[in-house]
Specification:
The complex is a heterotrimer.
Chain A lengths: L2 H17 L2 H26 L8 H16 L5 H23 L4 H21 L1 H4 L21 H24 L1 H11 L1 H6 L4 H27 L9 H14 L5 H20 L3 H15 L4 H13 L4
Helix pairs in contact in A: 2-7, 2-10, 2-11, 2-12, 3-4, 3-10, 4-10, 7-8, 8-10, 11-12, 11-13
Chain B lengths: L1 H31 L6 H18 L5 H22 L8 H23 L16 E3 L2 E3 L1 H23 L1 H11 L1 H6 L4 H27 L5 H16 L4 H21 L4 H15 L11
Antiparallel strand pairs in B: 1-2
Helix pairs in contact in B: 1-5, 1-8, 1-9, 1-10, 2-3, 2-4, 2-8, 2-9, 3-8, 5-6, 9-10, 10-11
Chain C lengths: L9 E10 L2 E11 L4 E5 L6 H9 L6 E6 L2 E2 L5 H5 L3 E4 L11 H10 L16 H13 L15 H14 L4 E5 L7 H12 L6 E5 L3 H4 L5 E6 L2 E7 H6 L1 H9 L1
Parallel strand pairs in C: 3-8, 3-9, 6-7, 7-8
Antiparallel strand pairs in C: 1-2, 1-4, 4-5, 9-10
Classes of the chains: A mainly alpha, B mainly alpha, C alpha/beta.
């Protein structure tokens, strides 16, 4: 995107609450959360070549840890956030050890199985997680004493976190390490022969992706003030994956676009269509069959062709 | 003592059901290198089909119903394979994603058609009377389920090891390019195997009805079990699916009975051990 | 473990590898001195690439030892062997086709450097990498194409990039897997000249199944057939050997 377009976007995002009603501000907050989640997944899918169907684990676990720490253990939000992210990152480290014993479809299956196990645990361990009822009555934190209860305040909080997350992940993928990650994605054997350690590169990326997935989970539980096992479900992971693929996994902007579209679809479609899952499934089929590289590359081509020829 | 025997039998019958579920999954993965995420939904479709059929027509034979469901689900699977999966031959990730999409579609369709309540499936009347063995009383149907699984295993064994079709499947599993090169119609074989896998799952769904009931989310409960069985037993190995199914059946049943909250972790553990120490599974081939 | 005076750059002792019933490598022993130019020949299926794959660590032998400058690397992962000075090109092009030539060679340079773990700074920060990459491309005559994506260049040029990547790390042992395969006559002479100009610090082991093309590059020759070493020694001796003629006439 050109610098002008980016600047316009940045300004629009910053001043949104002055122009939009509460409903849209809230929608924008949810889009920011979904964007961070999708970006973290894309570290794995687009840049690492590791397709995971269990990414919701990180969102859900971070959310549950925060919820439990603040309700059961009376922890303050600051400490709870640290415990939550630390716990989620440790879990990512552990899951990575298991899942990365395989690549490709094996990896996919293991991530799916692991996240389903977590989901089952969230359901069954009702005296801890409250099972199907979820954990309600949660509060939002007050960073530096600022309450986040009204939509605009929360939105700006989420925006700051999202910009930070985007910047951090952008630095990561453009770094020297990011180049090696992409190399391992494209030619793992060649990379090994050149002296790179493919497993370690993948594992580090997996942990980092889990970290940011956890961050999105914290924002998620702050926003909804409620957590339920569904957020750990395969549907949740699949929605993120759809966002990444529909938006285009090759870029940083793609997942953001895709996640926003999936969110909008979910919000508006559910007003007209009772069967969100079926719609999700059909959209999956459509995207994979018709637009496998996603919307963003398609849009890019459109923009370059409108500018007249290739750059 | 009674507890252990009952749970033991429950383990065996769950194991039998898991075999009906995962044998198809293992075949499809072994030959087509496709992790068929629709598999749980195929099973569930069979369960719902059986639930409606057996509740509406009280005299209906469960075997006939299972066969009917198996054929119906196989047909659905075949359509899906021909219309969607074949277009994605060069996109293995895409294939997995569409099976996921299809699973969502089927499960939501079931929700729409049958509603959100759990539908219990009646045990066939001729199998309701308990069986007495050595002074212990066993629910007959569960014994019969184990028999079904064994019968299915034997039938599949003969199909794979003793028929021409089976030889072609084995060739395709070993080396797809080579099989094509010697004239084996690999794409037709894919369709056949996919239909077979889906059909067994559908039939298994009917047979599982009396034990599991038909409920929304059954597909989400069954799919990870199939995954764990196949990871444990080894991809493409029927023996692995058989042994794995019963191991998981035991672990899950006793785990749920003894430590209900931790049942999933207990399932988790063998999977971790297998992946950590023997990634090809108990009977799989290395590098699968 | 390290022997006091490593005589050989690459020493293979009684290497065996079987796939099911098929013996792909049977009791193969080889000793290559530092700076030597060795050609490994043999008909298709003789086990040449399988041997290479065991040397690089992509394949685990059933038994036997592989030593690099005295260190037993038999159980080392492939990437660890690269750090011991082993480098390789492939029969099939395995370049990063979406990336520029310069980026490809830069990755080749990065593999042994601590900068590869840098998660903050981009590659462009490392000016010395860029300079070195350009110098390497210049060495193979491709500096003018440095900014082009690999997908845009000709097959012969891709082979030279492969060579550039492998040489960038100044390896002590370089394995070339059929480096002249599929090249036109002009391309072939260019690549041959490049191979001939590889510095003496690098021992070069080459696989070619067409005996004539690479013969003039070799000092010593090993003939493989059915996974076994048939003849091994100075080039002219091996060519004159009865058994060599037998193997090739029999094909």
């Amino acid at each position: 995107m050109t610098r002008i377009a980016l600047a316009v976007l940045a300004v629009s995002l910053a001043i949104l609450p002055f122009f939009a009603g509460d409903f849209y501000i809230n929608l924008a907050s949810q889009a920011l959360i979904a964007a961070i989640f999708a970006l973290s997944l894309n570290l794995l899918v687009g840049y690492g070549g590791m397709t995971s169907l269990g990414h919701a684990s990180f969102l859900g676990v971070a959310a549950y840890i925060s919820a439990l720490m603040t309700t059961r253990y009376g922890m303050g939000h600051g400490l709870a956030a640290i415990v939550s992210i630390a716990g989620t990152t440790l879990m990512a480290a552990f899951f990575g050890l298991i899942a990365l014993r395989a690549t490709g479809l094996g990896f996919l299956m293991i991530t799916l199985a692991l996240s389903q196990v977590l989901w089952g645990l969230a359901y069954r361990m009702s005296d801890v997680t409250n099972g199907d009822n979820g954990i309600t009555g949660l509060t939002r934190p007050m960073p530096f004493g600022v309450p986040l209860d009204n939509p605009a305040s929360f939105y700006w909080f989420a925006l700051i976190v999202a910009v930070f997350a985007f910047a951090m992940m952008a630095i990561f993928v453009s770094s020297s390490f990011g180049s090696t990650l992409k190399g391992v994605r494209d030619q793992p054997r060649r990379m090994a022969a050149l002296g790179f350690n493919p497993w370690m590169i993948r594992w580090i990326t997996f942990v980092y992706a889990g970290f940011w997935g956890g961050v999105s989970g914290l924002l998620y539980v702050y926003y909804h003030k409620y957590i339920h096992p569904t957020s750990l479900s395969t549907t949740s992971s699949a929605e993120a994956l759809l966002g990444v693929i529909a938006g285009g996994s090759g870029t940083l902007g793609g997942p953001v676009v895709g996640a926003t579209l999936v969110l909008l679809l979910k919000n508006y479609a559910s007003a007209y269509v009772e069967r969100w899952n079926m719609l999700l499934g059909l959209v999956f089929l459509f995207i994979v069959l018709v637009m496998p590289t996603g919307i963003t590359p398609g849009l890019r081509k459109l923009v370059t062709s409108m500018r007249g020829g290739s750059r | 003592m009674q507890f252990w025997i009952i749970q033991g039998l429950n383990s065996l019958s769950l194991g039998g059901l898991l075999f009906l579920l995962s044998s198809g999954f293992s075949l499809i993965f072994g030959l087509m290198r496709l992790a068929n995420l629709t598999h749980g939904a195929f099973f569930m479709l069979g369960t719902y089909f059986g639930a409606t059929a057996l509740r509406s027509f009280t005299g209906l034979n469960i075997w006939v119903t299972a066969l009917g469901a198996g054929i119906a689900v196989a047909a659905l699977g075949g359509l899906f394979e021909r219309l969607v999966l074949t277009r994605l031959k060069t996109n293995p990730l895409g294939q997995v994603l569409v099976t996921l999409g299809m699973a969502f579609i089927i499960s939501d369709a079931c929700l729409a058609l049958w509603g959100g309540d759990s539908i219990p499936v009646p045990t066939p009347s001729n199998l309701q009377a308990p069986t007495r063995i050595f002074g212990f009383v066993f629910p007959t149907y569960r014994l019969v389920l184990v028999g079904c699984a064994i019968a299915a295993a034997i039938a599949l064994y003969f199909l794979i090891e003793r028929t021409r079709l089976g030889a072609m499947i084995r060739a395709g599993v070993d080396d797809r390019q080579m099989a094509r090169a010697v004239g084996i119609p690999v794409s037709n074989l894919f369709t056949i195997v996919f239909c077979l896998g889906a059909g067994i799952a559908g039939a298994g769904g009917v047979l599982g009805g009396p034990i599991l009931s038909a409920y929304p989310g059954l597909d989400g409960d069954m799919l990870p079990l199939a995954l764990i069985v196949v990871i444990l037993g080894g991809i493409g190995s029927l023996l692995g699916a058989f042994v794995g199914s019963f191991i998981i059946g035991f672990i899950y049943t006793f785990g749920t009975a003894l430590f209900p909250e931790l049942a999933y972790i207990i399932l988790f553990l063998p999977m971790i051990f297998v992946i950590a120490f023997r990634p090809q599974g108990l009977f799989g081939r290395a590098g699968a | 473990m390290n022997s006091p005076t490593p005589d050989y750059a690459l020493e293979i002792t009684n290497l065996n590898k079987a796939f099911g019933g098929l013996s792909a490598t049977h009791n193969v022993s080889l000793a290559i001195r530092p700076g030597e130019r060795r050609l490994i020949i043999g008909p298709n299926g003789a086990g040449k690439t399988t041997l290479f794959n065991q040397i690089t660590g992509d394949l685990r032998p059933n038994s036997g030892q592989i030593r690099l400058f005295g260190t037993d690397v038999t159980h080392f992962t492939p990437y660890k062997r690269a750090h011991f000075g082993l480098s390789r090109t492939y029969q099939i092009i395995t370049l990063f086709s979406g990336d520029t030539l310069e980026h490809n060679v830069t990755l080749g340079l990065l593999g042994l450097r601590p900068a590869r773990w840098q998660m903050w700074r981009p590659l462009s920060f490392y000016g010395d990498l860029a300079t070195e990459a350009k110098r390497t491309l210049d060495m193979v005559g491709l500096l003018h194409l440095a900014a082009h994506p690999v997908s845009d260049i000709a097959y012969g040029e891709k082979r030279r990039v492969e060579l550039a990547m492998a040489l960038a790390q100044k390896p002590r042992v370089l394995l070339l897997d059929e480096p002249l395969a599929g090249l036109s006559n002009t391309e072939r002479s260019t690549v041959k000249a490049l191979i001939a100009s590889i510095p003496r610090q690098t021992a070069v082991v080459m696989i070619e199944h067409d005996m004539d093309t690479a013969l003039d590059l070799a000092e010593t020759v090993t003939l493989l057939n059915y996974g076994r070493v048939i003849v091994d020694g100075e080039r002219d001796t091996v060519i004159a050997d009865e058994r060599t003629r037998e193997v090739y006439l029999g094909t």
